[in-house]
Design goal:
Helices cover 47% and strands 17% of the residues. The protein is an alpha/beta fold. The chain has two domains: 163 residues, Nucleotidyltransferase, domain 5 (2-Layer Sandwich); 172 residues, ATPase, nucleotide binding domain (Nucleotidyltransferase, domain 5), CATH 3.30.420. β9, α9 and β10 form a beta-alpha-beta unit. It binds 5'-O-[(R)-(carboxyoxy)(hydroxy)phosphoryl]adenosine (KG4) and zinc ion.
Length: 350
């Protein structure tokens, strides 16, 4: 079974081909970084137009790379949300058009489910597992019990963690996108020079908060005035240490709850763009070791946005006999817990 995956929900135009042996036959990601850099963030209109300009060509290239044609496909999967709706529509309409023209089953994939199931593609993981999803738009802890079955343990009450990285980078006048820039700067820095807050640390739940941390970085930067390279490195390192500390603390609570719910100590899977952060991976690996389980972290290329995860999520659904009608709606907001809610009910609510 070979599935074409399409992704255009944020600032990456991505196309992939994945088969049911878990082979990624093509995985193309076209980043729009250069187009958004002058604005210091993703401009939705620019993103949508760029997806439109590039998606078709990328599909042709992916098919060529894998040495297959449309006739070899067994299904088409496209991200239908959540995300920037103008962009989401590009992959959604393209995917539906291919499915209609070739009479192929179509799968409307939730982008978060793509991240959630990646560890099954890369590491062949069985259900259940605990997932820490950390990206530019999301920060949550979930028990992944099956395809479409997610139990939310906690989430952010304000900013997503990737957003905090991006804003911190901006405050420190570092490069865009912020996450990798903060990580690079932090390599040279002293994580103990500045004592930054650890929001919600020690509380018994699994929620997150990052707005106070961001404010603390800003206040510290203002106190210092003109930032030297040393100041920047130390602030970046202190920020990164605080984030890792908080994510470990919240994940520890979630692991305890997961053990109560499932009788299993783990594993803990970390996914989403921030999962590319090495400091965070090390901290989480230490946590899982202490808790008697393991950390599963997909390679960074499959942690940041890509279409292999979308093709794989589509494949998982097709294998279960699931597919979606061609009038499936694109959704700017689409919590994972709603995956089991029938379309008709969602329509009645909106
Ligand atoms: O999953 P992703 O590619 O897109 C979303 O769905 O949001 O995540 C992007 C986020 C950005 O906020 C980016 O700054 C962050 O992931 N990120 C990182 C690193 N690489 C990307 N954050 C910390 N350290 C990194 N190495
Ligand atoms: Zn993502």
């Amino acid at each position: 079974m070979l599935v074409l995956g399409l992704e255009s929900s944020c600032d990456e135009t991505a196309v992939a081909l994945v088969n049911d042996a878990g082979e990624v036959r093509a995985n193309l990601v076209l980043s729009q970084l250069a187009e958004h850099r002058p604005y210091g963030g993703v401009v939705p209109e620019i993103a949508a137009r760029s997806h439109l300009d590039h998606l078709d060509g990328l599909i042709v290239k992916a098919l060529q790379e894998a040495g297959v044609g449309f006739d070899d496909l067994d299904g088409v999967a496209a991200t239908l949300g959540p995300g920037l709706i103008g962009g989401v529509l590009v992959a959604a309409m393209t995917g539906k058009a291919i499915a209609a023209a070739r009479a192929l089953p179509f799968v409307a994939v939730n982008h978060l489910e793509g991240h959630a199931l990646t560890a099954r593609l890369t590491d062949g993981l069985d259900f259940p597992y605990l997932l820490l999803l950390v990206s530019g738009g999301h920060c949550q802890l979930l028990a992944v019990e099956g395809v479409g079955c997610y139990r939310r343990y906690g989430g952010t009450i304000d900013d997503a963690v990737g957003e905090a990285f991006d804003k911190t980078a901006k405050l420190l006048a570092l490069d865009y996108p912020g996450g990798p820039a903060v990580e690079r700067a932090a390599q040279e820095g002293d994580p103990e020079r500045f004592v930054l807050p650890r929001p919600l640390k020690g509380r018994p739940d699994c929620d997150f908060s990052f707005s106070g941390l961001k404010t603390a970085v800003r206040q510290q930067a203002e106190r210092l005035g003109d930032l030297s390279p040393r100041d920047r490195a130390d602030l970046a390192a202190s920020f990164q240490a605080s984030v890792a500390d908080v994510l470990v603390d919240r994940s520890r609570n979630a692991l305890a709850r997961f053990r109560r719910d499932t009788g299993q100590p783990g594993p803990l899977v970390v996914a989403g763009g921030v999962a590319a952060n090495r400091n965070l991976r090390q901290a989480l690996a230490a946590l899982t070791e202490a808790e008697g389980t393991v950390l599963v972290a997909p390679p960074p290329k499959l942690c940041t946005d890509n279409a292999a995860m979308i093709a794989w999520a589509g494949l998982e659904r097709l294998r279960l006999g699931q597919s979606d009608p061609l009038n499936a709606r694109a959704r700017p907001r689409w919590p994972l817990e709603e995956l089991r809610t029938p379309e008709s009910e969602l329509e009645a609510r909106s």
